[in-house]
C-alpha cells in the first residue's frame, strides 16, 4: 500500500522566495491602503457630522432670532396703533380747546364758574346715592 501521507517538499529556489516576499509586500501594502482608506473615510464623516451640527445650530439660532423679531414687530405695531389713537385723541382735544363753547362747559363743570346772572346748582352724584 501506498502511504497515506504524501510527502511534499518545498522548492527552495530564489524565484519562489522572491514571489512569496512580493506577495507579502502586496498584502501589507493592501492592508496599509485599507487602513488609510478607513482613516480618510472616518475623518471625512466626522467633518461632515461637525458641519451638519454647526449648520443646524446656526439655523436654529437664526430661526429663534427671526421669531423674536416677529414678536417684537407685532408689539411695536400694536404700540404704534395705540399711539395713533392717542394722537387722534390729542388732536381732538386741541380742536376742543380752541372752541369757546367747550371751554365754557369745562369752566362751569370743573371750576363752578357762571355767566353774569346765572345760578349754578350742584346735584349729588349717582354713586353717593347708591352708597346710602
Q: Label the overall shape.
A: rod-shaped
Order of helices and strands: HHH
Q: Largest beta sheet, briefly? A: none
Give start-end ranges of low-pLDDT stretches. none
| Gyration radius, rounded | 50 Å
> CA-to-CA gap between the ends?
140 Å
Strand content is: under 5%
Any overview of this molecule?
The chain is an all-alpha fold and 132 residues long. It has one domain (14-116). The chain is built from three helices and no strands. It has helices at residues 14-97, 100-111, 126-131.
Notable characteristics:
132 residues; mainly alpha
Concise structural overview:
The chain has three helices and no strands.
List the helices and strands and how they pair.
Layout: H1 14-97, H2 100-111, H3 126-131
